[in-house]
C-alpha cells in the first residue's frame, strides 16, 4: 500500500502555506473538493493584520483581538500570532507577494473594524486573498500531487485510534483510500450552512463533520461571525462589500440618510462586526433597507476594483450607495487544536478556519484569518519537517476501516437527507444572527428528524457527491445548534435575545498592562476586563 508523508485535505491559504514550507523530499498529496483556488481564501478582500506601522505594536493588535473576541480567546494563541504577524507579512513580501505599497515603496496599511491602528496589509486593492493564493500556488504547483474534484467522506482510524488516512470520492463516483503519516484537515469553515453568506459554494462544514464522525474534539461551534455588509438585492445576498470600505470612510445609513451606527458604539461604523451586524439586522426586521454610502471615498473604483465589478455586474450604482445585509462569514469554533495544529486524535491535524485554536475567541477581528492560516501552516510545517519516523500503522484496520464502528442497523429506504436550501433557510431563521431557545430547540428537533446518529455510524461510500455534502451540512448544523442551546449568554458571534448580555453592546474600557525591560522591549502584556 503506497503511503504519503502528508495528506492535506483542502487548498486554502493554510493548506498552501503548509505545502510550501514542507521539505521538498517529503511526499505530499493535496486533495480538494473542487479546484485548487475555488475557496474562501481566494475571495478574501480585506487583508492581513500586522502591527508594522511606525506607531503600532503587537500589544495593541493583541488587545484589539481580545476585545473583538469578547475575551473568550486563548491568550497564548493571540500573543503568539499577533507577535508573529509582521514577520509573516514581511516574509511573503520579500518572496515577491504583490502587496499594495505607497509612493515611497512602503506597505500601505488600511483600517478595518475594531482595530485601533491602520494595520491591514492588502494586495490588488480588495483582492488580497487572490494575490496571496497566486503567490503560494506558484510555489507548490510542481512540488506535490494535487487531486481536484474529490470529496473526502471518511477518515481512516486504526485500532490504536490513530488517523492513518482518508477515503475520497471523485466526481465520476470512484472511491479511493489515501494513507499518510500526517492527515491534515484544511477544509475551511461552514458559511454555506446559511441562506445569506459571503462564503464560496464549497464551504459546507465537511472537515468539521469528518473530525466529529472520527471522534475528535470540537469546540466553540456556537460562535459564527456574520459579516455586516454583503451586497443585498431582492432578498438575496451577492458577495462581500469589504469592511475596508468603512475603514476608508463608508457609512451605514437608512433610506433617509440617517447614520445608523451613531450612538451605538464609540467606534461607529467600525464597531466590532457582531455589533454592526446585529444593528443592521434590527432595521431589516422592520423592513427598513440599510445602505453603505461610499460618496466620501476618493478613487473608489481604483481602491476597490473587486467590489466595483461586483456592483456593476449586479447593476448597482455604487456612486450613490450600496444596499447591504449581514451574512455568515466565519466560524470561530471548529476542530480543537493546539498551536501546532494537533487535534485530539493522533495523526490528525487541523489548520485554518476548520480549526479552533482559540485565537478568535467569540468573534474574529478583521483580517486575522489569512494571518491565522499563514501562522498555522508555518507551525505545522515545522512540526512535520522535524518529526521523526512515525509509528507503524495498523493496516488490518486500515483495510477494513469500517471495523472502527459497528455499522448502524440502517434501512436505507427509511433514511432521508434534508434539501440544501432547507438547511440554509432554517439555520438562518433559527440559529442565525439573533437566537432564542425556542428557535434553537425547533432547529435541533428538525435536524434530529434526519437520523443524525445513523449517518455518524455509517459507511457513506455509496452516496453521491452531492449527498455527501448534505450529510456534512446536516452534522455541522447540528453541532452549531446544540452548542448554541448550551450557551445561555450572549457573547460575540452568539447572540441570544432571550439571554441578552448588556455588555454585548457595551464598550468595555480596556486596560492594557504592559511590562517592558530596560531596553523598552515588551516582555509581557495582559488585558484586564
Ligand atoms: C472584509 O474584507 O471585510 C473581510 C475581511 C475579513 O473577514 O477579515
Automatic annotation (TrEMBL):
Record keywords, A-Z: FAD, Flavoprotein, Oxidoreductase, Pyridine nucleotide biosynthesis
Catalytic activity, EC: 1.4.3.16
Keyword Metal-binding found: no
Domain FAD-dependent oxidoreductase 2 FAD-binding residues, every copy: 5-370
Fumarate reductase/succinate dehydrogenase flavoprotein-like C-terminal domain segment(s): 421-524
Localization, UniProt: Cytoplasm
Pfam families registered for this protein in UniProt: FAD_binding_2, Succ_DH_flav_C
Known catalytic reactions: L-aspartate + O2 = iminosuccinate + H2O2
GO molecular function, one term: L-aspartate oxidase activity
Family statement drawn from the similarity comment of this UniProt entry: Belongs to the FAD-dependent oxidoreductase 2 family. NadB subfamily.
Function: Catalyzes the oxidation of L-aspartate to iminoaspartate.
Matching PANTHER family: L-ASPARTATE OXIDASE, L-ASPARTATE OXIDASE, CHLOROPLASTIC
Protein name: L-aspartate oxidase
Organism in which the protein naturally occurs: Bacillus norwichensis
Origin organism lineage: Bacteria, Bacillati, Bacillota, Bacilli, Bacillales
Underlying gene: nadB
Amino acid at each position: 500500500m503506497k503511503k504519503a508523508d502528508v495528506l492535506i485535505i483542502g487548498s486554502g491559504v493554510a493548506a498552501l502555506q503548509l505545502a510550501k514550507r514542507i521539505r521538498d523530499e517529503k511526499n505530499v498529496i493535496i486533495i480538494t473538493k473542487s479546484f485548487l483556488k475555488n475557496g474562501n481564501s481566494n475571495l478574501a478582500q480585506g487583508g492581513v493584520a500586522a502591527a508594522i506601522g511606525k506607531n503600532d505594536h503587537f500589544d495593541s493588535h493583541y488587545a484589539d483581538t481580545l476585545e473583538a473576541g469578547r475575551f473568550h480567546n486563548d491568550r497564548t494563541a493571540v500573543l503568539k500570532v499577533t507577535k508573529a504577524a509582521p514577520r509573516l507579512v514581511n516574509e511573503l513580501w520579500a518572496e515577491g507577494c504583490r502587496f499594495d505599497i505607497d509612493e515611497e515603496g512602503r506597505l500601505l496599511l488600511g483600517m478595518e473594524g475594531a482595530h485601533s491602528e491602520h494595520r491591514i496589509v492588502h494586495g490588488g486593492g480588495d483582492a488580497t486573498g487572490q494575490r496571496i493564493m497566486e503567490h503560494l500556488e506558484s510555489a507548490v504547483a510542481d512540488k506535490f500531487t494535487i487531486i481536484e474534484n474529490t470529496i473526502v467522506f471518511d477518515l481512516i482510524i486504526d485500532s490504536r485510534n490513530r488517523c492513518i488516512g482518508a477515503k475520497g470520492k471523485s466526481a465520476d463516483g470512484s472511491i479511493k483510500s489515501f494513507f499518510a503519516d500526517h492527515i491534515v484537515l484544511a477544509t475551511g469553515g461552514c458559511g454555506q450552512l446559511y441562506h445569506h453568506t459571503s462564503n464560496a459554494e464549497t464551504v459546507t462544514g465537511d472537515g468539521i463533520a469528518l473530525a466529529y464522525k472520527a471522534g475528535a474534539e470540537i469546540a466553540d461551534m456556537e460562535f459564527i461571525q456574520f459579516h455586516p455588509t454583503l451586497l443585498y438585492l431582492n432578498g438575496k445576498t451577492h458577495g462581500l462589500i469589504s469592511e475596508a470600505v468603512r475603514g476608508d470612510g463608508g457609512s451605514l445609513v437608512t433610506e433617509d440618510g440617517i447614520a445608523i451606527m451613531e450612538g451605538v458604539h464609540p467606534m461607529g461604523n467600525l464597531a466590532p462586526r457582531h455589533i454592526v451586524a446585529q444593528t443592521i439586522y434590527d432595521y431589516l426586521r422592520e423592513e427598513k433597507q440599510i445602505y453603505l454610502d461610499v460618496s466620501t471615498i476618493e478613487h473608489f473604483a481604483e481602491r476597490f476594483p473587486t467590489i466595483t465589478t461586483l456592483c456593476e455586474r449586479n447593476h448597482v450604482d455604487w456612486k450613490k450607495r450600496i444596499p447591504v445585509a449581514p451574512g455568515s462569514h466565519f466560524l470561530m469554533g471548529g476542530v480543537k487544536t493546539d498551536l501546532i495544529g494537533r487535534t485530539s486524535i493522533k495523526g490528525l491535524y487541523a489548520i485554518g478556519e476548520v480549526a479552533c485554536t482559540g485565537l478568535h475567541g467569540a468573534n474574529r477581528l478583521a483580517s486575522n484569518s489569512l494571518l491565522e492560516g499563514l501562522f498555522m501552516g508555518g507551525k505545522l510545517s515545522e512540526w512535520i519537517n522535524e518529526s521523526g519516523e512515525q509509528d507503524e500503522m495498523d493496516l488490518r484496520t486500515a483495510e477494513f476501516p469500517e471495523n472502527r464502528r459497528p455499522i448502524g442497523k440502517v434501512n436505507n429506504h427509511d433514511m432521508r437527507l434534508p434539501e440544501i436550501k432547507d438547511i440554509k433557510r432554517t439555520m438562518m431563521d433559527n440559529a442565525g444572527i439573533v437566537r432564542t431557545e425556542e428557535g434553537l430547540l425547533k432547529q435541533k428537533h428538525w435536524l434530529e428528524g434526519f437520523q443524525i446518529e445513523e449517518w455518524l455510524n455509517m459507511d457513506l461510500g455509496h452516496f453521491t457527491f452531492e449527498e455527501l455534502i448534505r450529510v456534512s451540512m446536516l452534522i455541522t448544523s447540528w453541532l452549531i445548534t446544540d452548542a448554541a442551546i448550551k450557551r445561555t449568554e450572549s457573547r460575540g458571534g452568539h447572540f441570544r435575545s432571550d439571554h441578552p448580555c448588556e455588555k454585548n453592546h457595551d464598550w468595555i474600557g480596556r486596560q492594557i498592562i504592559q511590562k517592558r525591560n530596560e531596553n523598552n522591549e515588551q516582555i509581557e502584556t495582559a488585558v484586564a476586563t
